[in-house]
Design a protein that fits this description.
Low-confidence stretches: none
Number of domains: 1
Oligomer: single chain
Helix content: over 70%
Strand content: under 5%
Largest sheet: none
Length: 273
């Protein structure tokens, strides 16, 4: 066990050293989440102002609408940064033509995945926490005011991001560099079904069925319930956890299969050339 932890830390340190020696990499971690928060923060302020100024509008309703938008942006960044953290850390090994060298060592596939997940957590926190600070300073929105349930929101969205990332990595192992673009696009394609900015009930019936199978939709339904009524939807959290476990199990099996196939084909040595 100690040897496994040492190998996992070695892989993590390899990526941490890249950030230590490159300030543009560090800047990139927070750049997009902070930019998103600035854009959506001003949008939320505009929407809240229109609601408050409309006939029959109330200041409280306007504040809740703005909070729902900001909360959706921040929590969706958790999923995005988690997915990108795994995928980009893996592609760093491909771009540097290091994947074959890594597996000449005693490193096991599950140890590589553990290191990628740990790096994903670090990258997510480095990107999302500054955005949360911006939301608090500029728009007086404190995500942590929702209470301890925020931890469950984070955990479920991270698990979904990891599942999508493992599926993307599996496709890269199967199809090579031609599948790398999926690292930036797959999770965005799930956004309409994740109900980030609106309830699932506004979707067409067929899309509602698809949304039910997306863990994030239950997280955002739970977030809106916590914001609007102050109640915790444990049923939604249970569905999110159950779906995430299924997604992770499926993605893990797919990764194991594609990794085994890539090793037999010799693709681990030639990938990135």
């Amino acid at each position: 066990m100690r040897a496994s932890l040492r190998r996992i830390w070695g892989m993590m340190y390899r990526h941490l050293a890249l950030y230590r020696s490159s300030w543009p990499r560090l800047l990139e971690l927070a750049y997009w989440p902070v930019l998103q928060m600035c854009i959506w923060g001003f949008t939320a302020r505009f929407v809240a102002g229109r609601i408050a100024g409309s006939a029959g509008g109330s200041l409280h309703a306007a504040e809740l609408a703005g909070a729902a938008l900001l909360g959706g942006v921040l929590l969706w960044e958790v999923a995005l940064r988690s997915q990108m953290g795994v995928a980009i850390s893996f592609m760093e090994e491909i771009w540097s033509r290091n994947l074959g060298h890594v597996f000449v060592s005693p490193l096991r596939p599950w140890e590589l995945v553990s290191a990628l997940l740990a790096m994903s957590l670090i990258r997510m926190l480095a990107g999302v926490l500054p955005a949360i600070g911006i939301a608090w300073l500029l728009y007086a929105f404190n995500l942590f005011a929702l209470g301890p349930i925020v931890v469950l929101f984070f955990a479920n969205l991270m698990m979904m991001g990891w599942a999508v990332a493992l599926a993307v990595v599996s496709l890269i192992l199967r199809h090579g560099a031609g599948a790398e673009a999926l690292a930036w696009s797959v999770l965005f394609g799930l956004t309409p079904f994740a109900a980030v900015f609106y309830p699932v009930s506004v979707l067409p019936r067929a899309m509602q069925v698809a949304a039910f199978l997306v863990p994030a939709s239950h997280v955002f339904e739970g977030m809106r319930a916590a914001l609007l009524t102050g109640t915790v939807r444990w049923d939604q959290m249970a569905l999110a956890v159950g779906l995430n476990l299924l997604w992770l199990a499926g993605a893990g099996l797919l990764f194991a299969r594609q990794f085994r196939s890539a090793r037999l084909r010799g693709a681990l040595l030639s990938m990135g050339e």
